[in-house]
UniProtKB/TrEMBL annotation:
GO CC terms of this entry: nucleus
Transmembrane segments: none
Presence of the UniProt keyword Zinc in the record: yes
GO molecular function: zinc ion binding
Entry keyword set: Metal-binding, Zinc, Zinc-finger
Key word Acetylation present: no
Protein name: Histone-lysine N-methyltransferase ASHR1
Length: 522
């Protein structure tokens, strides 16, 4: 029997068996339908007070709809993580409670989990007491091989146990029932992935050492996590960990979203980024929106198993979509004064500028692209070994070549400039960092129109650099631009936003002091 058939049978048959087993557990009296109905009623009543409702659409499954108007910047919903883990790797660790990376001490019991102090340790103790017991029984090598994804799964099962034992209460908006209701896409994942989930499930079961643990169910939950868990980021959108937010996970995707998901500590907060009328679907983006339709659709299909039919995606193949893709991921016109986009000619031998008609040879493009490729491998090597001087000089050469090859609004060019900006900031070369930051602003404005956190954060970086360099007037302008976006995407009450507003006030005060000093000198 081929492994494929074996997996098909095991997972599908056991899945049905498991669904029945759970029904029986939940159903002391009444039918499965009545359990689902009462669970949905509870969820609807929990959401009703917030002006939200869940409805189901054949092509999307569950969807989150509004039952009132939401203004730009308004919080649509916020949710604590049902379970979460920091992205601890062999080189970087964070506190399990607040994800901070300072003053960490290892849990003396399991030697796996870190805390920044007794407050975080205490707040996590109910769950960690069980996890610590399980991890402590492992030998050192096995303990070291416990990945964040495996810990997330362990915590999921331990939280379910605490809920069943009545130690952590289940509520209408936070319960394992909501986790079970999340899509798992078991019939869509390929055999290789199934085998991987099964191997991970085996390890989780080995760590839990529960006589009734069900490998198939754990594997299915791994698949659930893959399309429902969120990367938890700090206010500047740097990834810190992973969390499962079962209510926010009801929100579907659009490449033209009307809402954005940000994090305040481990709490997930969804803000409206435009006026959302009553009876509209709340939509966030699951993928980087500044990509061509083909790239976005590929990413959505691979991880979430659907074809997006949002207003941007239905334009696929139309002239403006082709233009957008060729600008984002294509080449530039040979004529430096022209900002046209290139398409292949009918013989597929050359590229033709769609604005001025100038030809560009495929050979020339290939040559520059292969130079960039070999330099990129080198630059990455320098970067990962923290040899920033060499990395910067190599990325500068890449940037020069990309300016010859790619359209001014190309993603690869902006990615290189972003890398240079980050490394130059690391080396405290503020003036060069500002040079690259300023180059990214017009591109960000085009790539992220409207209220997008990445545009706001880029203005913020620009403003900080300008202020550090004593260019107070421009710092005020950039920080004002940052506030104009981020007060909608991040709200105004977070420590990050309070700090930004304070910085803006200080920059404004300094600018007016400088102005009055100049006037009194006259
Ligand atoms: C995080 S869940 C969203 C909630 C989901 N609709 C449910 O019923 O639980 C992600 C899954 O929802 C579906 N989905 C999300 N956005 C979609 C869209 N724009 N079109 C079709 N399906 C979508 C896909 O099946 C995807 O894997």
């Amino acid at each position: 029997m081929s492994p494929h058939r074996w997996w098909d049978r095991t997972l599908v048959d056991k899945s049905q068996g498991q669904t029945r087993r759970l029904c029986c557990t939940v159903l002391a009296s009444g039918s499965w339908e009545s359990v689902v109905t009462s669970f949905m009623e509870e969820l609807q009543s929990g959401l009703g007070d917030r002006g939200l409702t869940v409805s189901t659409r054949p092509e999307k499954g569950r969807c989150l709809f509004t039952t009132r108007n939401f203004n730009p910047g308004e919080v649509i919903i916020s949710e604590e993580a049902y379970v979460s883990v920091p992205n601890n790797s062999g080189i970087e660790w964070r506190c399990d409670g607040c994800f901070s990376s300072s003053n960490l001490k290892k849990c003396s019991g399991c030697q796996v989990v870190w805390y920044c102090g007794s407050q975080c340790q205490k707040s996590e103790w109910k769950l960690h007491r069980l996890e610590c017991g399980a991890l402590s029984k492992l030998d050192e090598d096995r303990r070291k091989s416990v990945t964040p994804s495996m810990r997330l799964m362990l915590k999921l099962y331990l939280r379910r146990k605490l809920e069943l034992d009545g130690i952590i209460p289940a509520t209408s908006l936070s319960s394992y029932k909501l986790v079970e209701a999340l899509v798992a896409h078991m019939s869509d994942i390929d055999e290789k992935q199934l085998v991987l989930y099964a191997q991970m499930a085996n390890l989780v079961s080995l760590i839990l050492q529960w006589s009734d643990s069900n490998i198939k169910e754990i594997a299915e939950n791994f698949s659930r996590l893959a399309c429902n868990a969120h990367t938890i980021c700090d206010s500047e959108l740097r990834p810190l960990g992973t969390g499962l937010y079962p209510v926010i996970s009801i929100i579907n995707h659009s490449c033209l979203p009307n809402a954005v998901l940000v994090f305040e500590g481990r709490s997930a907060v969804v803000h409206a980024v435009q006026h959302i009328p009553k009876d509209a679907e709340v939509l966030i983006s699951y993928v980087e929106t500044a990509r061509s339709t083909m790239t976005r659709q590929k990413a959505l299909k691979e991880q979430y198993f659907f074809t997006c039919k949002c207003p941007r995606c239905i334009k696929v193949g139309q002239f403006d979509d082709i233009q957008e893709s060729a600008t984002l991921e294509g080449y530039k016109c040979k004529n430096n004064g022209c900002d046209g986009f290139l398409l292949r000619d009918s013989d597929d031998k050359e590229f033709i500028c769609q604005q001025c008609g100038l030809f560009r040879s495929k050979e020339e493009i290939k040559k520059i692209a292969s130079e960039i490729k070999s330099l990129s491998d080198k630059a990455l090597m320098y970067e990962t070994s923290h040899n920033y001087q060499e990395a910067i000089s190599t990325y500068k050469t890449i940037e020069k070549l990309q300016r010859k090859l790619c359209h001014n609004f190309s993603i690869s060019l902006i990615e290189t400039r972003e890398k240079l900006l980050k490394m130059l900031m690391e080396l405290e070369d503020w003036s060069e960092a500002l040079h690259y930051c300023r180059l990214t602003i017009p591109v960000y404005k085009r790539l992220y129109p409207g209220l997008h956190p990445l545009l706001g954060l880029q203005y913020y970086t620009c403003g900080k650099l300008e202020w550090l360099l004593g260019d107070t007037d421009n710092a005020v302008k950039s920080l004002t631009n940052a506030v104009d976006v981020l007060r909608f995407t991040h709200g105004t009450g977070t420590p990050f936003m309070k700090d930004l507003l304070l910085k803006l006030e200080e920059a404004q005060a300094e600018a007016s002091y400088k102005l009055s000093s100049k006037e009194s000198e006259k």
